[in-house]
Amino acid sequence: MAWGTPNRERRVLKAGHSSIAVTLPKPWAEAMNLRPGDLIVFDQNDDGALYLKPAPAPGVTAAGAPYLVQARAFDTPGVLERLIVGAYRVGHDAIEVRADVPLAPDRVEEVLGAARGLLGVSVVAQEANRMVLQNFIDPSKYELPQLVQRMKMILIAFLEEMEAAVQRPSRTRRLTTLEEEGNKVLALLVRQLFLASRDWSLARRIGSPDPRQLLEWRVAVYTLEELSELFGGALAALYAENSKLPEEIRESLAGYLPEMKGHLKAVVEALMHPSLDHACDVYHQNACFGETLETVARRGRRSGVSIGARATVQWLPRSAECLALLSELAIDRAVAAGSESVLIEAA
User: Fold this and answer.
1) What pTM did the predictor assign?
2) Tell me, which fold does domain 141-337 have in CATH?
3) 294 in helix, strand or coil?
């Protein structure tokens, strides 16, 4: 975010007998709503750089205080679980659920299910109208690149399960397992980003030395989340329609699923290890792959093919678009590194 273009050089001033001071840029101070007497906090980087931000306002919930979810009764299925997941994703460690009446058995199971679906969360107290969940994960132990790599492995497992399903018309319980594991990793990734945005020293420890990179990470996580939903939907459609698939669609999937795996691996590698030459190469390959998959999807829309059968290939072009977005992000990260140039041949 830019708050104008103030002079980047500031003269150090004498303050009192033994102290020194430097003024803050007015546009930044106004954007942060700072007034004389307000407090700011700073964090020192390993290279000596200082990061400043306003101190938390009075009345902000103290660290460690439970996030309270309270209502007269929880009647709508799913709402309670989503509130718990949301509290976890934005960084709350303790979550307390309270109701004026005893929680119904299905709502209790909803809370227990929410806890099972979140990494590091356990139910530590359970009463008739009150339940408390506690997160035991140390955020500094889970680096962003590590979690992205884990998400890549889950997506590859989706594709491998699709490859196996194309060869044998059977349905396993693998889909549910992969969806649950993917949701856990994605929720933790979002949580890490929220925590890092409030603690720059944590951001550096988990792989984002420049706080501005957190926006890039958020775009990457959102795209990985969409890929997970696309792959899960495609696998479900494949389970349902496998025995009725036209041979042409079956052959297309058998040919392009391994390629999808290769492109996914290359894109994540370009994201994790920024190199302008490599990122540009990956971007070009994905562009060509996306055009091919769009052609396959168009063939799948022809009349005479059932809606279910079409669903087994309609996810392909959208998945290629997601990979293209990640490859664009890889180029951005490489350009930001500013350590190399790339020669582009003229058409």
Assistant:
1) 0.79
2) Methane Monooxygenase Hydroxylase; Chain G, domain 1 (1.20.58)
3) helix
